[in-house]
Amino acid sequence: MTTPFQFAQKVVVIAGGTGGLGNALRIELEAKGCVVITISRSHTSSPTHITADLRSPDAATTAIAEVVARYGSVDIVINAMGVVSFGPINTTSVDTVEELFLTNTFGHIFLMQAALQSVKQGSVLVGISGIIAEQNLPGMSAYGASKAAVHSFNEALGREARRSGIRVIDARPPHTETGLASRAIAGTPPKFPTGLDPAHVARRIVQAIADGETDLPSAAFTP
Q1: Which of 29, 109, 129, 185 has its CA 20 to 30 A from that of 102?
Q2: pLDDT tens digits for range 96-136
């Protein structure tokens, strides 16, 4: 029988922690007794926030090292950061493609590389690739490819990290009302049906951490 994950006083890092889903995850984990540190490019007055651009591997390493220096450990790392663009690939600029992969893919890889230098047996790493990683869509091809790469990376990372007793969760929630589409770096979003409540998605991810899960396909988020 698997021992339930103990959340009390665990040190959590949430990249993209000031966004819609990141904030919902912070609230959920703080309610369970975790110490939650958010990381984003945004500046806030919170003493538990680190301003960093995780598109840089040095910034990711420095941010994780700062958390360890302050709190003594890192027990859970969740990557909830991301950018999106819309439009056919033949009108998508090179700069847009680069930004999608720098933020969504490279930033995720850099963060997980940095985390692996500090997390210990029993720790959990969470990457949110999203439903787009299961089936890409026209008008979102570059974005979908950047998230599919995250899913593929998480799959291999899970096998590598398991040797050290570290669990990796790949989460692929359906469209969620985080406001990300309204902040697209290029293009105009299509009319999406109403998405999931970020609080619901956050609870499901935290449940997966608690229950020892490693794979959260889109179907796992059905309300």
Answers
A1: 29
A2: 999 999 999 999 999 999 999 999 999 999 999 999 999 99
Distance CA 38, CA 23 (A): 9
- Total-model pTM: 0.95
How many CB atoms are located within 10 Å of the residue 191 CB?
Answer: 4
Please write down the HEC assignment for all residues of the chain.
CCCCCCCCCCEEEEECCCCHHHHHHHHHHHHCCCEEEEEECCCCCCCCEEECCCCCHHHHHHHHHHHHHHHCCCCEEEECCCCCECCCHHHCCHHHHHHHHHHHHHHHHHHHHHHHCCCCCCCEEEEECCHHHCCCCCCCHHHHHHHHHHHHHHHHHHHHHHCCCCEEEEECCCCECCCCHHHCCECCCCCCCCCECHHHHHHHHHHHHHHCCCEECHHHHCC
Residues 6+ apart with CB under 8 A from 145: 136
Average pLDDT of the residues of the chain: 96
The pairing of beta strand 215-216 with beta strand 167-171: parallel
